[in-house]
């Protein structure tokens, strides 16, 4: 079956305005997204923050599609960039591309990675992050708005990973864009410090000796 897909705002910029997809019978909205993201990888980091619509009405990702349907993918109504939580790897380059604009002379990226040593020197095999998802999503959006309000004209994108994060992979990525480097640096530092204070997320480290230690913060 054929369905028409439309993208808006930042999604249109990294993908297409309108296209037609040929999907298998029984496909759902999530299948349309997967097909589109396969052709336009820049969409991938936006997935946790996108709402879908079918034939002019909001629809769930498991909504069944029919031949001739029109599917729309909609980014958040406000906010500078794609921010939120994800259970998969974070695409740093896509976040940077989504935020960069001609008026931004500075782009600062912070990547917090899972490291193989704890502060006390013990070997860490893996990290796991647990979040109060419903609250964490709202709090993260508030942090982004606070930063963008404090540094007017800036844009902020934050993605924090949840679940198991293998050693060496990114656990949190913060991208800040502004007209000048001082604003981009200051906004970035504000975001990570505020995340540590306000975001309801907890880290568990699994050590080589089999013990575990859970503590708050990113």
Explain the overall architecture:
The chain is an alpha+beta fold and 218 residues long. The chain folds into 2 domains: 73 residues, Roll (Ubiquitin-like (UB roll)), CATH 3.10.20.30; 133 residues, Molybdopterin biosynthesis MoaE subunit (Aldehyde Oxidoreductase, domain 3). The chain is built from 5 helices and 13 strands. The chain starts with a strand and ends with a strand.
Spell out the key features of this protein:
218 residues, alpha+beta, Ubiquitin-like (UB roll), Aldehyde Oxidoreductase, domain 3, 2 domains, 4-stranded mixed beta sheet, 5 helices, globular
Blueprint (SSEs and pairs):
Blueprint: E1 2-7, H1 9-14, E2 18-22, H2 29-39, E3 51-54, E4 57-59, E5 70-74, E6 84-86, H3 92-99, E7 106-113, E8 124-131, H4 133-150, E9 155-161, E10 163-166, E11 170-178, H5 181-198, E12 201-207, E13 212-216
Parallel strand pairs: 1-5, 6-9
Antiparallel strand pairs: 1-2, 3-4, 3-5, 7-11, 8-10, 8-12, 9-11, 12-13
Structure class? alpha+beta
Overall number of domains: 2
The average pLDDT score comes to: 87
CATH architecture of the largest domain: Alpha-Beta Complex
CATH domain topology of the largest domain:
Aldehyde Oxidoreductase, domain 3
Strand tally: 13
């Amino acid at each position: 079956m054929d369905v028409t897909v439309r993208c808006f705002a930042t999604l249109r910029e990294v993908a297409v305005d309108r296209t037609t997809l040929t999907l298998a019978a029984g496909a759902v909205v999530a299948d349309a997204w997967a097909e589109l993201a396969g052709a336009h990888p820049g969409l991938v980091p936006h997935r946790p923050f996108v709402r879908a619509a079918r034939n002019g009405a909001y629809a769930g990702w498991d909504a069944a599609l029919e031949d001739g349907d029109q599917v729309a993918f909609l980014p958040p109504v406000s906010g500078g960039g794609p921010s939120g939580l994800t259970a998969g790897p974070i695409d740093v380059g896509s976040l940077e591309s989504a935020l960069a604009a001609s008026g931004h002379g500075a782009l600062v990226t912070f990547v917090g990675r899972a490291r193989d040593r704890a502060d006390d020197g013990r070997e860490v095999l893996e990290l796991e992050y647990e979040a109060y998802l419903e609250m964490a999503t709202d709090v993260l959006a508030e942090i982004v708005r606070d930063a963008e309000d404090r540094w007017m004209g800036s844009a902020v994108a934050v993605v924090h990973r949840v679940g198991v994060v293998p050693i060496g992979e990114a656990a949190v990525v913060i991208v800040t864009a502004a007209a000048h480097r001082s604003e981009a640096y200051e906004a970035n530092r504000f975001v990570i410090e505020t995340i540590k204070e306000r975001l309801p997320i907890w880290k568990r480290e699994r050590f080589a000796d089999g013990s575990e230690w859970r503590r708050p913060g990113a």
